[in-house]
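JOB MANIFEST
job_type = single_chain_structure
chain_count = 1
residues = 66
[input]
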Amino acid sequence: MLALYVATAIALQRWEPRFRLSRCALSEADPQGRTGLVLHGTYYPRGHLGDYSVSEDATMRVVRTL
């Protein structure tokens, strides 16, 4: 699970400049390999342009299936 958390944080930092992760939690896991994460952080609508002056709290749910 730690490797999944780290991979998620690195991918968000590298590829999604509009979202800054502050917390990541496991929301589900089953024997078939399906996992779900809940991501909490700050969303910057214009972050892709380098403008971090506008922000809002954000939560998203991500489900990964194998």
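[summary]
The chain has a mean pLDDT of 90.
The longest helix spans residues 2-15.
exit_status = 0
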